[in-house]
Structure formats: structure tokens, C-alpha cells
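Need C-alpha cells for this chain, all 307 residues.
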Amino acid sequence: MSRGPWHVAVLMGGWSSERSVSLSSGEGVAKALESRGHKVTRIDMDRDVAMRLAEAKADIVFNALHGVPGEDGTVQGMMDLMGIKYTHSGLTTSVVAIDKELTKKVLVPEGIPMPGGHVVESESLYAGDPLPRPYVLKPVNEGSSVGVAIVTAEGNYGSPIGREVEGPWRHFDHLLAEPYIRGRELTTAVMGDEALLVTELRPKSGFYDFDAKYTDGMTEHVCPADIPDEIAEACKDIALRAHRLLGCRGTSRSDFRWDDERGIDGLYLLEVNTQPGMTPLSLVPEQARKLGIDYAELVERIVAEAL
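Here are the C-alpha cells for all 307 residues:
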């Protein structure tokens, strides 16, 4: 299909814990496409989404959903059945990449360094720790650092963790337990078949959680990151390999922890996001901008590749 003008349905919102982020991403995308002369139909996903997509008769759907069910293969499978083209990764990739344990089963045998750990029943945490402290507990299939807890020896969760203490164990039946990796938070975007840059995230609250990600001024973005060339190249190489191994399309974003006292041996991939945020604060647009690709051009490229 030509460079347009296209009719794009922007799918956003939904009912996941990341609804507000998705609405912000979707509105940014819609305005960018309209600024380039394309027709846009905004769809805030509800249970009648299939009917609304059929009525829209768009050339393509820009999937700006975050979390479940927009990022886990559910919506992708529906659109596949309907014969609708859409941006970002397809069904199989989405199913695997949102599940942190499945992602490890694909990537670790291929030599991608990821933290150890295992899935635990939340109920078991009240009896004892699954790993030596400090360790991290996170939902198996949520994004945006939703429900992540760092359990330390001197923390206020109790030992063992108290049943009445607020944490992800009260909201999810199963959690992924991983050793805590001290050090720095790095992230690398991949677009098409190219790794962009490495950004270091320096949260002012001490942890890059949901609020730090999406509240202006709560996290300092250092882009490109002030790190040795060897680490920057390793991040880009791992991000691109993970993107390919998982079968990602369009853009993805790989998040890392780097223990800078251990050099290259301290670099670990935490997860791959198949539908990274497209809000004004988001990391992929920021990296693209540093490489001379403005926001509207980035959005248009994502759509063009999917078409």
C-alpha cells in the first residue's frame, strides 16, 4: 500500500491496569496521524470491540493497548480471525512475551542473560521466603512495573511476609520470584530491524515503578546512557536478538538491570515489551527523536511497516 493517506483505527483504553497509559498513547498516536493527513477512528476498547472494528472498515488498526487483553495475544487473535491488519507483534509473540516465565524459556537457551528465579504461589510467601533476600516479586504477565515488590532484609513487609501487608501477593495468585540485581536500569528500543539507543532511567523515588514511569519529573532519562561502549553495544545486541527470537514486529523495548561493579557479567535482560508506550514521556519516541525521527514520523513508520 502507498504512503497514504490511510484510514487508521487507533485501538486504546480497555480495562487493564494500564488503561490511563493506553489512552494517552492512543491519543498521541491519533493526533500524530491526523497531523500527517490520515483519517483516524478512535476506539476505546469495550466488549463490543469486534463490532466496532468491523464498522470502522479501516485500512489498519494501530494497537495502542497496554496489558491484558490487548498485549497478550487475545486481541491479536480476534483481529487475525477478522482478517484485520494491525501494528506490533502477532498472536504467538504476544502470548509468549507478556509471560515472563515463557520469555525465559525461549531466550535463556539461546544465550540471553536473564535473572534466575521461579513462579511461586502467593499463599506460600506467608510461610517463608522463596529465595534469599533481597529478591523481587512481580506478576507473571503484567507490564509497566505494576505490582512489583522488592523484598529486603530490612524492609517493612515482615519476615515472613505478612498476610495483611499490602503487596502484589494480595492481588495475584502466582508471582515470579527473582534474585534482586543491584545497579542501574537500562532500556533499549528496537524498531523494524534496528536497535536504537540505550537510555538509563534514574528514578527520583529509588525504584522505577508505575508512578515513576508515567509521572512527569519523577524519573530522569539519560539518553544516550552514560555507560561504557561495551555495555551499550551489548544492550543493543541483546535487544535485537530477543526481538528476533520472539518474532516481534514493529517496535519493541527491552529492559535491563546492570550491576556496574561486575562489568558485562552484571548485565541482565528483565523483559521484552511488545507494545511499548507511545505517550509523550515514553522511551521509544524519545530514542527515535534523538536519532532525528520525530513523533509523527515514528508513528507513520510503524503503520507503514505493518501495512
